[in-house]
Design a protein that fits this description.
The structure holds two protein chains of two kinds.
Chain A lengths: L15 E6 L3 E7 L2 E3 L2 E4 L5 E5 L2 E7 L1 H22 L5 H14 L7 E8 L5 E6 L5 E4 L1 E5 L2 H11 L19 H18 L6 E8 L6 H9 L4 E3 L8 E8 L4
Antiparallel strand pairs in A: 1-2, 1-10, 2-11, 3-4, 5-6, 6-7, 7-8, 8-9, 11-13, 12-13
Helix pairs in contact in A: 3-4
Chain B lengths: L46 E3 L2 E6 L2 E7 L2 E3 L2 E4 L5 E4 L3 E8 H21 L7 H17 L6 E9 L2 E8 L4 E3 L2 E3 L3 H13 L8 H18 L6 E8 L2 E4 L3 E2 L19
Antiparallel strand pairs in B: 1-4, 1-7, 2-3, 2-11, 3-12, 4-5, 6-7, 7-8, 8-9, 9-10, 12-13, 12-14
Classes of the chains: A alpha+beta, B alpha+beta.
Pfam families (chain A): Proteasome (PF00227)
Organism (chain A): Thelephora terrestris
GO biological process, one term (chain A): proteolysis involved in protein catabolic process
Chain lengths: 250, 265
Amino acid sequence: MAQTRSFNPYTENGGTILAISGQDFSVIAGDTRQSEGYSIQTRYAPKVFRLTDRAVLAVNGFAADGNMFVKKVKQRLEWYKHAHSKDMPLKAIARLIQTMLYAKRFFPYYVYNILGGIEEDGTGAVYSFDPVGSYEREACRAAGAAQSLVQPFLDNQIYFKNQVAAPGTTHPAHLPLPDVLSIVIDSFTSATERHIEVGDGLEVYIVLAKGRDLQDFEAIRARNVHLTQELTVTEDGERIFVMRLDLKKD
Amino acid sequence: MDHFPTNWGRPRNDAFDAYGTYPIHQRPNNVKDTFAEGVQHTQQPIVTGTSVLAIKYKDGIMMAADNLASYGSLARFRDVQRLHAVGNHTVLGASGDMSDFQYIRSLLDDLVIEEFTEQDEHTLGPAEIHEYLSQLMYARRSKLNPLWNSLLVGGYKDGKRFLAYVDLLGTTYSASTIATGYGSYIAQPLLRKAVEGREDTLTELEAQAILEESLLVLFYRDARSLDKYQIAKVTEGGVAISESMALKTSWSFAEGIRGYGAQTQ
């Protein structure tokens, strides 16, 4: 009889990711620490990746699987572009990710995915996945080591759970970009305080719908000029920015 | 006479009655199934190397490892090179199974020769070597037949330093200081304290002193380490791996230890 295998092909590399969608924007963020057990492997290993000018993918879990998965998704998107002369729409990327994850149902990618971006109708969107491909579109989602710390905070601040609107008013359906960015940054500084696997650095990707008024964003950008970088490739479409911030390193 | 042609030329089993008709005729089952035990994969490392340390410094990267290959707790081979040059811009350091490392080196040597014969003015740099290794290691772990190593790839090409890690799971990362194995617990904090934020100002002498101090601490604390080591430097000028050197240890402090161990009072 074959000997029972003792080799474990998986490990857990810590970190946390988070995405929030708005009316006409989407914010996707992740910390940059990579760890194994109690050891920090590196302070800068990106978990958030630009796929197209309107899609950003965040991966969290087993880093080797995550990197391989992102590599394969990017490859499929490139093939799509060569075949159809356009970028794949966000909802199609979401379905692609489902089939790619489920294809490995019996030797899964041990990765939680969050896809953020702009739909074809111009609305901000967030899709979240489990490791074998179950997915849904949501307004916000946290995943990873500090999911249990961050998601309840988002439920309260984004979905207004356990909050009662002032008499005669209702909760807003969508939050403005500056509010969302504040919530994202606060989520990560708080998770860094309370979770040992979160910290070092924060990367926040901001996807803005085509033709969106940039006034509010420019105000934020002006305060963080050297931290913000534009990644947009195509002219006259959605625009992508990344903000790189510091988190505590202890 | 055996009347079953499929048995001709195979070992005979005299205990088997080839003429028996009950319950039905069968071929003598004296041929051992090659795959009965399943394909054997590496389940554990056998002859192992301990930590490899590496840092970035002003002129490039520097890597260090001792010369020991252990057989369990036995210090079996005391003159093993665990740092190897790959092409002209890269050094590879290995901890973990030494036979797997030997195999990896033979793959890389073939790769370098293949690229050389192209004669296309392109040479493999550290980034390409690391990508190749990470795909190899991830592919092998995905077949549940891993190459049982933690590898460091360091290099310098086109004015850029490169230092990255890959292990038996295919996990990769890069940083300005990296240590494998026991060194990730004991040496990495020392290296970070000395190097982080000073990558562009550390001189060759300072870098070497930091690595030697870390190796010394490891030799005092890691029971599978040796006081014989080599240091590799990769700079603009290429790869240079030193001859074996000995750590300068001092044991006089042991005289003063009280509370455990052998002592009269």
